[in-house]
Design goal:
The protein has four helices and nine strands, in the order E-H-E-H-E-E-E-H-E-E-E-E-H. The strands form two sheets. A six-stranded mixed sheet has the order 4-3-2-5-6-7, sandwiched between helices. Strands 1-9-8 form a three-stranded antiparallel sheet. The longest helix has 18 residues. The structure holds xanthosine-5'-monophosphate (XMP) and magnesium ion. Its cofactor is Mg(2+). It is an enzyme of class 2 (transferase).
Length: about 180
């Protein structure tokens, strides 16, 4: 790829092809597990959008989609532990089978909060599907039903993930050079 975003990357962690293959597998597993049911996918804005678009098309069941936005890191790379709802759902989740779709689980604080919040609305079930899992930095355990890839403590960008709103449109996942965010 010939763009200047490439120069900010140390390496490519997962290629476009690897992502597509893994998402096919996740979609097949979800399709089997939810057979006969309808799914309400809840995407966590904004990082999960690209993953969610591909995942939804890998599931061979009726899928409704909705979104929530919660406070995130902004331009810093460590979690404040403070979670705020910036945009709530448009749909009622009562009696629905909710599948939360996340780009990456890091400290777990965001999803821990979201799970509690969504359970209080009386859905039929809630499961989590995350593209990436960074267990080294976990502060609170969250139950992950579907995990794309477990990764070391790298700061990753691409395929929806950003640094200061940049790199989301890279079709692969890459590791940012430390000097890109330290400097
Ligand atoms: P938690 O609450 O699990 O936060 O600490 C998860 C959210 O943090 C962001 N995050 C990242 N974003 N590259 C990113 O672009 C990363 O390596 C990274 N690690 C965490 C992300 O928004 C995620 O939803
Ligand atoms: Mg996110």
């Amino acid at each position: 790829m010939s763009n200047n975003m490439m120069d900010d990357l140390e390496k490519i962690l997962f290629s476009e092809e690897e992502l597509a293959a893994r998402i096919k597998e996740l979609g097949a597993a979800i399709t089997a597990d939810y057979a006969g049911k309808e799914i309400l996918m809840i995407g966590v804005l904004r990082g999960a959008v690209i993953f969610m678009a591909d995942l939804a098309r890998a599931i061979d069941l009726p899928v409704a989609i909705d979104f929530m936005a919660v406070s995130s890191y902004g331009a810093a790379t460590s979690s404040s532990g403070v979670v705020r709802i910036l945009k709530d759902l448009d749909e009622d989740v009562e009696n629905k089978h909710v599948l939360i779709v996340e780009d990456i689980i890091d400290s777990g604080l965001t999803l821990n909060y979201l799970m509690d919040n969504l359970w209080s609305r009386k859905p039929a079930s809630i499961k989590i599907c995350t593209l990436l899992n960074k267990p080294e930095r976990r502060k609170v355990e969250v139950p992950i039903a579907y995990n794309g890839f477990t990764i070391p403590d790298y700061f990753v960008v691409g395929y929806g993930l950003d640094y200061a709103e940049k790199y989301r449109n890279l079709p692969f996942i890459g590791v940012l050079k430390p000097e890109t965010y330290a400097g």
